[in-house]
Design goal:
The protein is of the alpha/beta class. Helix content is about 45%, strand content about 15%. The protein contains 15 helices and eleven strands. Bound molecules: NADP nicotinamide-adenine-dinucleotide phosphate.
């Protein structure tokens, strides 16, 4: 029986994870949950899974949540940064699933690491903004960071039983998102509702927009460098619109190992929760029949400049990935609120990066200060691009 703490339990990854717990009650027990403000769903989850603790964004939300809970449920309701950290490090939990969205995941993830939890990491922004700090603290605590992102889970699986020094290249696949074939001149008119319709994956709003700009793939390149301790020049992004191959590793003898499956996050989440075992999920296999086509292409950096910006941030390192991440979060929010155009997202990120003087080998305080600075700068820029 593995005890879990789930951060971001009301989101797409969190709900999928709870579905796995529901199906395997003899294997998992939920000890703590966290969300931002979705109190109705969180209350439902608490009534079903009876965690010892739950955290929400602020005190007002905590009071709303308490009103929705039966007096006898016994769940301790916490809130704010301290509440999230306590839930992340909740004592009986052995594994913390970090499925909050954005930079908000950083401090709770560090709290979970400090208390020795195994991390099932969905919250890629944490590694993008603070990869050096997070991986150093995990190494110092002897804590494993297991990938939940399907591409990184695939790479992790391809590397099982292999010698790391035999790996020559990581081939990170990208669906290309909803605008893979859209003409560049039409990008400025793209609306949030169009960008939120991903062809293959059902995900939260922020990552769906990141997939449409290809920033998501850029964030994943940076995430992969930290998760697997590999240099950026070993990673090649390959557009594979069917999302059947979740990623591949090429070895120095010319062999390529790929991990395949239907595009559904359940398998990657379950593997991180039950590693090294695999659960009988009953997932369908990809349709290996005459109609199956697996195609590959190069990413188009002209139409998708966010990917190039992420390459640049990764190459330069220091605090530049922190700036990339923060400016992107701000720009995506402005786009979702219909305050800037789709094409403004890379412009806001680029100009914020250009205005930054990177700090080499940043500590946590440098990273948090840079994150604050970049959010302010990007918001000013976004306001000036406003519709
Ligand atoms: N979805 C996928 O298929 C997928 C795949 C790979 C990686 N990921 C990564 O997994 C993470 C979660 O993605 P998602 O698609 O599940 O997102 P989502 O559906 O938007 O869910 C986000 C979760 O985080 C909570 N949250 C949002 N802002 C917060 C804040 N400031 N403080 C605390 N909690 C906050 C939300 O609570 P409320 O509901 O209360 O707002 C919700 O529970 C992201 O980092 C994403 O990049 C997702």
């Amino acid at each position: 029986m593995k005890a879990l703490s789930i951060l971001g339990s009301t989101g797409s990854i969190g709900r999928n994870a709870l579905d796995i717990v529901r199906r395997f009650p003899e294997r998992f027990v939920v000890k703590a949950l966290a969300a931002k403000r979705s109190v109705d769903l969180l209350a439902e989850q608490i009534r079903e899974f009876l965690p010892e603790a739950a955290a929400v964004f602020d005190e007002g939300t905590a009071r709303q949540l308490e009103l929705l809970l039966p007096a006898a449920c016994g769940t301790r309701v916490l809130y704010g940064e301290e509440g999230y950290k306590m839930v992340a490090a909740w004592e009986p939990a052995a594994l913390t699933l970090t499925a909050m969205v954005g930079a908000a995941g950083l401090l709770p993830t560090l709290a979970a690491i400090e208390s020795g939890k195994t991390i099932a990491l969905a919250n890629k922004e944490t590694l993008v903004m603070a990869g050096s700090v997070v991986t150093a603290r995990a190494a110092a605590q002897g804590v494993a960071i297991l990938p939940v992102d399907s591409e990184h889970s695939a790479i992790f699986q391809c590397l099982q039983g292999q010698r790391r020094e035999d790996a020559a290249q990581v081939l990170l696949t990208a669906s290309g998102g909803p605008f893979l074939r859209r003409a560049r001149e039409e990008f400025a008119a793209i609306t949030p509702s169009e960008a939120l319709r991903h062809p293959n994956w059902a995900m939260g709003a922020k990552i769906t927009i990141d997939s449409a700009t290809l920033m998501n793939k850029g964030l994943e390149v940076i995430e992969a460098t930290w998760l697997f301790g590999i240099p950026q020049n070993m990673i090649r992004v390959v557009v594979h619109p069917q999302s059947i191959i979740h990623s591949m590793v090429a070895f120095r003898d010319g062999s390529v190992i790929a991990q395949l499956g239907v595009p559904d996050m359940k398998a990657a989440i379950a593997y991180a929760l039950s590693y090294p075992e695999r659960l009988a999920l009953g997932q369908p296999l990809p349709a290996f029949s005459s109609g199956m086509r697996l195609t590959f292409d190069e990413p188009d950096l002209e139409r998708f400049p966010c990917l190039g910006l992420a390459y640049e941030a990764c190459r330069q390192g220091g605090t530049l990935p922190t700036v990339l991440n923060a400016a992107n979060e701000v720009a995506v929010n402005f786009f979702l609120e219909e305050r800037v155009a789709f094409t403004s997202i890379p412009m806001i990120v680029r100009r914020t990066m250009e205005a930054h003087v990177p700090v080499d080998h940043p500590g946590l305080e440098d990273i948090l200060a840079t994150d604050r600075w970049a959010r302010k700068k990007a918001s000013q820029l976004a306001s000036s691009y406003g519709r």
